[in-house]
Amino acid sequence: MSGFDTVVIVDWSAGKRAPKRPTKDAIWIGIARGSGEEEPLYFRSRIEAEAWITHFLQTENAAGRRVLMGFDFPFGYPRGTARAVTGSNDVFALWTWLESRIRDDDAGENNRFDVAEEMNRCFEGLGPFWGKPSRDMWPDVPYRKAGIAFERIAERRSADVRANAASSCFQLAFPPTVGSQVLMGLPMLARLRRLPGVAVWPFDAWDDAQTVLAEIWPGLIEPAVRQALDAADPPIRDREQVRLLARAVAGLTPDRLAVMMQDFPEEAREEAWILGAGHAEELRALAGPVPLAPPPLRNDCFSLPAGVDWTPVDEALALLRTRLTCTVGSEVVDIGAAQGRVLAQDVIAVRSNPPQANSAVDGYGFAGGVPEGDHVLPLIEGRAAAGVPFDGAVPSGHAIRILTGAALPEGVDTVLLEEDVASDGQRIAFRGPLKMGANARRAGEDVVEGATALRAGRVVTAADLALLAAVGVSRVMVRHRLRVAILSTGDELVEPGQAAGPGQIFDANRPMLLGMIRAFGFQPVDMGRVADDRAALRARLESAARQADVILTSGGASAGDEDHVSALLRETGAMQEWRIAVKPGRPLALGLWSGTPVFGLPGNPVAAMVCTLIFAHPAMALLAGAAWQAPQGFDLPAAFEKRKKPGRREYLRARVRDGRAEVFKSEGSGRISGLSWAEGLVEIGDGERHIRPGDMVRFIPYGSFGL
Ligand code: AMP
Ligand code: MG
C-alpha cells in the first residue's frame, strides 16, 4: 500500500451552532501533510463542516493527493444493533437508514432523540439508547442508564474495550455524548462515501482508494494532549487533539500505517474499529509529548559563591551546568532536516532492526547446525533475495539458495557461505561443522521495536539518521535552533574590507564567532560592531535580546574605563564578573539583559575563542536543550617542553603530528595565526608542572568542542 499525502482528523460534534469565538466541544479539523502542519480549523455547524470536507476532498483529489480522513466517533454499533434496527448486519444499511431519518439545520437543530426513540423501539424491552436533556420528552429514551440490561447487545464494542474507551455509543446525553455524535455523524459519512474514490476502512477495499475514511480516537494519545494543553493558548482540548492526532498519523511510515490498518478482529466487520487501537504507545511517541515551554532563567543564575577570588575551571563549569536550563521550544521535523538538531524527546524504535531474521552472506540456507564431516543436501527450487522473500517453507534436510539481506524463509535458521559449498544446481556438498544460526542475523539483534533508540538531548549526527531510518522513524521532535547574537565592541574596530586608519584594527572576533556558532549547529544573529559608547551599546543589547536566545559580546568585559559591557550589565543588577583561573582568559562578564543571557567575552581573539570553546559552548548547549557534554580528549606524548606555575589551568594551541602533541611556537595572546595553525588545544591541569618532550599531555581536538 502506498502512503497518504494528507492526513485529516475531524473532531465531530452533536451540539447546536457553536459560538463565533473558537471553543471546545465544537467541530475541529486538523490537517498534516508530510512534514507540514496546519493550524486546526474551527467550524460552527455540521453543515458548514460537511461542505468544507466535501470541497476539500474534491480539491485534494484533483491535485492527485491521497487523503486519510479520521473521524472521532464510532462508525458502527455493538454486534446485533444493526440487525435489530434494519434486519441486516451490513453497517452501510444502518448508515442509510439513519441518513434517511436524521434532519439537521445550520442552527444545529436536529431530531436525533426522535430517531433514537425509533431505534429503541426496534428492541424487545428497554432499548440500549439512553440519556436526554429533558426528563419529560422522548418517553422511549430513558433518562438514565439504570435498568438497561445490555445482555443481548453489549454496552461497548470490541474496539472500545481494546482501546480502553469508557464511553458507549448508546449514551446520548451528559458528556461524553458519543452516542449523539454517532447519530449526527453517520449520515454525513454515508454521503461522503458516495463521492468518487472514497472507501471506508475497514469495510471497503482501501488499498487503492484515493480517499479513505477511518474511525480514530484521540484518547489513544491522551498523555500527549494533556501535555500540549498545558502549553496551548488558549487551551482548547479538541483543537490539540486533532492537531496531535494528525501529526501522529502523518508521522507513521506507510509500512506502520499498513500494519495498523490490517490489525483488527473479525467483529470489526460489523462493529467497526478504531484505527491504531493496540498501538497507542507508537502514536503517542509521534504525537508528542510536546515538551513544555521552558521557564526563563533565574535572575541569579550567574551568581558566584562569595569570597572566592579566582574560581577554578571545573567549579565554573559545574556552576554553569547546574544553573542553566533549556530556554527554547520545539518542533517536529523530517529526519532529513534533523542533522545537528537537538532531540526534544526520547525516540522509540517503531520497528526492529533487522525487522526479520535475514542472511548475512550470499550462500545456501537450511535448518540447524551440522556436525563435523561431509554433508550433502538437496536444493529446493527458488531462491530468497533481499526484498524478494521466498514464499514458502524449506523442508528439513533441504537447502535453498539465499542472498545477503534476504529474509530467512520458514525452515531456515543457518546459512552456508557460498565459498564453502560445491553445487551442481540440484544438490550442495559442504564440510561440517557449522553452528546453528551461523551467518544469519536475528530479528531485532541490533535494536528491538519499542526500545529507546536515541535519548532526548542528543545532537543528531549523520549516523543517527541511519539509525532513525532503520528503526522506522521518519519524523522527530527537535528543539528550535538556539539563536545566538554576536556583537563586537571597541572604538578601534573596523569592518574587514574597509580602510583601516592608524590605530585601527579589523574586527576579527565577529567572523570567527559567527563561524563557531554555525559549526555548533546554532543560528547566528549578526549584531555588527558597536563603538565604546554606552548609549549605543545599550540600544544594541536591547535589540539583540529581542532577536536572540543568548548574546555573545567580545571586548569591553573587564573593569576598565572603556569596559562598557561589564558596566552596563552591572547596572542591571544581574551581572557577575567571573574571574576564572584560566590562561588564556580575562574576566568573563556574565549576566542577563532583559532576561536574555549575555556572555561578555574578552576582546583578545585568542582568549575569546578559548573561552567560547571551554565555557560558552557547553553553556549554550544546555540553553539549546542538549545534554551536558564534557569535551573528549586523549593523552599523547608531548613534542615540547614547558614549565607551568600552579594555580590556574592552561590551554595551549596545539596539533598532533606523528602521534605527538605539538604546540604553537608562541603563547602570545594576540597571535591569531596560532589559532588557525592549531587543530585543538593541549590542556594542562591546575597544578604546577614541568613537561618534558615525551611526557604525556591531554590533547583535545577542536572537534571535541563542537567545532
Ligand atoms: P578589550 O577586552 O576590549 O580590552 O580588548 C582586548 C584586546 O582585544 C584589545 O587589544 C582589542 O583591540 C582587541 N580586540 C577587541 N575586540 C576585537 C575584535 N573584535 N577583533 C580583534 N581584536 C579585538
Ligand atoms: Mg575594548
Automatic annotation (TrEMBL):
Keywords, A to Z, come to: Magnesium, Metal-binding, Molybdenum, Molybdenum cofactor biosynthesis, Transferase
**Reported cofactor(s):** Mg(2+)
**Gene3D superfamilies the UniProt entry points to:** MoaB/Mog-like domain, MoeA, C-terminal, domain IV, Molybdopterin biosynthesis moea protein, domain 2, Molybdopterin biosynthesis moea protein, domain 3
Identify the pathway. Cofactor biosynthesis; molybdopterin biosynthesis
One Pfam family in the UniProt entry:
MoeA_N
> What Gene Ontology cellular-component terms does the record carry?
cytosol
Any one GO biological process? Mo-molybdopterin cofactor biosynthetic process
Q: Which CDD domains match?
A: MoeA (cd00887)
The enzyme's E.C. designation: 2.10.1.1
Q: Which reaction does it catalyse?
A: adenylyl-molybdopterin + molybdate = Mo-molybdopterin + AMP + H(+)
The MoaB/Mog domain sits at 485-622
A GO MF label:
molybdopterin molybdotransferase activity
Q: Which InterPro entries match?
A: MoaB/Mog-like_dom_sf, MoaB/Mog_dom, MoCF_biosynth_CS, MoeA-like, MoeA_C_domain_IV, MoeA_C_domain_IV_sf, MoeA_linker/N, MoeA_linker/N_sf
* PANTHER family per the UniProt record, alphabetical: GEPHYRIN, MOLYBDOPTERIN BIOSYNTHESIS PROTEIN
Name the job this protein performs.
Answer: Catalyzes the insertion of molybdate into adenylated molybdopterin with the concomitant release of AMP.
Family indicated by similarity: Belongs to the MoeA family.
Q: What is this protein called?
A: Molybdopterin molybdenumtransferase
| Source species of the chain | Sedimentitalea arenosa
